[in-house]
What does this fold into?
Amino acid sequence: MSALLSVEHVGVRFGGLVAIADLHFDVNPGEIVSLIGPNGAGKTTAFNVMTGFLRPSQGEVRFRGTSLAGLPPHEITRLGLARTFQRTSVFPDDTVFDNVMIGLHRQGSLMSRAPLLDTLLGRGGANERRLRERAAALLERVGLAGRSNEKAGSLAYGEQRLVGVALALATEPAMLLLDEPVSGMNASETRVFVRLIRQIRDSGVTLLLVEHDMPLVMDVSDRIVVLNYGRLIAEGPPAAIRADPAVIEAYLGQGSAARHAGAGAREAEHA
Amino acid sequence: MTRLAPLALLAALAALPLGLGTDPYLLNALITTGILTIGAMSLNLLLGFTGQLSLGHVAFFGIGAYVSALASLGFEVEVGFGLRVVHEPWPAAVGLVLGTLAAGACGYLIGRLSFRVRGAYFVIVTISFAEVVRLVALNWVELTQGPLALTNIPAVTLGLPGLGYWTLKTKAQNYYLVLAVGTLCYLVIGRLVGSRFGRAMRGLKENESLAMSVGINATRTLTVAAVISAAMAGAAGGLYAHYLRIIDPDVFLFATTVTMVIMVVAGGKGTLMGPVVGGLIFGLLPVLLRPVMAPEAQWIVYGLILIAILFAMPKGIVPGLRALGARRRPASPVLEVNPAVQR
It folds into this structure.
């Protein structure tokens, strides 16, 4: 089976700062893969490289065998690779419904050869109706149908994440990158979201997830890729990752090591 | 009611000359106000809907005016290497179309630039562009007569073969021409804004990264918006040239851009009716103030009224009135939003 997305020896440097040293992994069609690591490990940077918001200093990303090098974000989306954002996942001044209508931009252009001309001549009515139906269906799918007419910026943080997912799904992706999708959600919202993630996968969309919620990651992932200081330190199924000494050290070991060092320093002061 | 307001305004404006008779002073004020209002509507397409402030908008207006005037006057210039370009006069209506197209082409250049420069940098680029164009108009005397002005610009002749032709010499005729072009621009902007293209503009304005991530091509969208906006400003400039029948490099004055910005911001940027309401108020305000106070006081009052409007309705008149209307109708469920969250 050939990989859907391959990250091939990608490195990102900002001046002297190494955000990603050398990242290399594949995602296969139909998988749910999670990218985890402590804060500052380079996860979001990796997302930005994959979706064209950031140019890597080395290496390249291939999607369905096509190199994404030099492609702007909107063209990568058109290839079928969509993403959500960690912080700003909505168009805040528009209603939830209009948010999804904006997200259906690409579908609108597929319906007509000269959309701008159609607009000026008032011929777009039928297409608009179809887009509105799709927007309603998408909101139903993510469970926001009841919020259609509210301003997206006024929704609770967790609901804004869902709008972000609806926007990404509106582009009809083959693969979806979710950047901390459950941050700001409570436990029951998270449970519902897990169901949504599975549903999305079952509809044929491959998923790559950046997430800090470890129970969720262990629950939904087929495979986990662990980053630390811009380096891949482990890769494998959840059970193997849970037992991996390198991962445990990255998450716990340094913290306890620092505590030990701190205690040592205090003792030295007293002496 | 909000749907009927534009129609009611159009009907009132169409009936206005009948009521005023043919008082040339008032008609003249209405025509220049109308022309500036078209400019304000075009500026609103960029400022209100894409969020890009073009402080050189008068450049498109002036280019429309000069191209339209020169096309209908004819010219003969030396372009270097011993080449001479001779242009025979064309009908004024053709000039208007050419002026519109030329301004649109310049809008394309500025729009492409916006790919690289946004925000404050875009503002500076547009100001510089307007200044460069003004200096060309001032100094390329062989083509533009420089400060001596282009005079005797023909009035617009409209008509169809077989039906007859009318040359728009009277003020009332010009008034209706401006009203027709203004209505057309309003309809075009209305269609655009309510469409997929309008949603792409809004998306880019509200959250550019997110908009790009759903497949919206930022450069293309901003370029198309700039072309349409510039073309409309150019059409307004062409109307101006053929109405006044004389233009000089002062059509590129920065103050004209400022007036258009005031009209848009006071009326309500990002709304269809905002620039029209703002345009009528701030276009006609000097006319209303003139008989009642000294010239020095007029501009002070003008400024005070602007401040008062923006103090009472920070988002502009049209959104302000809309909010008032929503408050009066308690029957419709209004979502209570914490203003801090809303922002």
Q: What stands out?
A: Residues 245-270 of chain A form the longest helix (26 residues). Chain A has a mean pLDDT of 84. The CA atoms of residues 249 and 257 of chain A lie 9 Å apart. The longest strand of chain A covers residues 17-27.
